[in-house]
Amino acid sequence: MTTSGAHQDSAGDSARSWLWWGRRRSAVLDVGLGLVSAVECALEGVRFAGNAALPVPLGVLFGLIAGSVLVLRRRWPASVVLVSVAITPAEMGFLMGIVGLYTLAASEAPRRIIAALAGMSLVGTLIVTFVRTRQDVGSADFDPGPWYVPLVSVVMSIGLTAPPVLFGLYVGARRRLMESLRERAVSLEQELSLLADRAEQQAQWARTEERTRIAREMHDVVAHRVSLMVVHAAALQAVALKDPQKAVKNAALVGDMGRQALTELREMLGVLRAGEDVVTRAAEPVPLAAVGVAAAAAAAAAAEDGPAEGPSLADLEPLVEQSRQAGMVVELMVQGDARPYRPEVEQTAYRVVQEALTNVHKHAAGAKTWVRVAHRGAEVAMQVENGPSERGAADAGLPSGGNGLVGMRERVSALGGVFVSGPTDAGGFRVSAVLPMEVSSA
């Protein structure tokens, strides 16, 4: 079955190898024109045989062969015109000459070849018409004047040559224009598809970046607040019976921190819900161009808007105070004059200090901690260092996913900064970050 299919394919290819017509309708048209031209030339061959003293069947056969050449007009239009010029002295092939000139002018042949063959056809028709008309006038009973024969010859030769050439040039130019417009439309459609795909990728990248940013924010909020709440809850349990006043104070702190954590979580969840509404609206079927424009607009908006307003360096003092209330000994040192930064720089600096303090609560409970912030000429630096824990390797028993340091590094690297963390020689741990100082225009 496969072999027969292969034979059929090869037979089809071999059958198409000599067929130069793109469509069956074109083949039928050319064959029909060839038959009409062959019949015309055969009829004209009878007169040619009589004038040349040749047998009539020979003249008819010559006309049939010459006229059938018109079938090749799409493959070899120049050859068809040459044949029509060659049989012009025999007063044959008027249809072949007209159709051949039209096909040649409409083809992709060089203009100099079209002009040369059209000139040959014009001269041949002019000579034959001049001779024939002069013979007719000479056998007539009246004298039309010396201008009649040249005028008729010029008009007839131009009338048989110029219209098919001009019409063929027009059709060829129009065909090339349509092909150019079609190719341009296909190219534009491909470019539009590529732009839509690229815009969708950018939008997807922007959505991924936004989800990552929100995940980091939620990690920082939950880890820090809940860590402080656990520390205060442990202190509350320890002093509940011994010092009721301190227990009440710790309970109040736990409540305040829980409310702050819930407030920040609600804000972030509100952003997520708004994003879900946008995604739901975008899921409706829209044209490809609209998808590309909407995706590009979403990506551009996400890139321009940047992170939402959040904590800043001015909030470091309350942050350190919360750790002090949890029983940590923290010293805050600020060098240089504070100045306004971009919101993402302010927020990243705050989150680095916050996450570093959270790690101290988790893994070095009771250790003395130093928070240093330096405003320099071209950058802002922050460092959080803690000494050895009073309980050695023990920690507060808080769970850790190992994403704190990774998140801090991602935040700092995204702004072109430098992040370094590691243990100190004294047995503690140090977290350092340097952010490029880009002063806001406000």
From TrEMBL:
Pfam families: HisKA_3. Residues 210-275 form the Signal transduction histidine kinase subgroup 3 dimerisation and phosphoacceptor domain. Keywords: ATP-binding, Kinase, Membrane, Nucleotide-binding, Phosphoprotein, Transferase, Transmembrane, Transmembrane helix, Two-component regulatory system. It comes from the Bacteria. It is an enzyme of class 2 (transferase). The chain crosses the membrane at residues 52-72, 78-101, 113-131, 151-173. Its EC number is 2.7.13.3. This is histidine kinase.
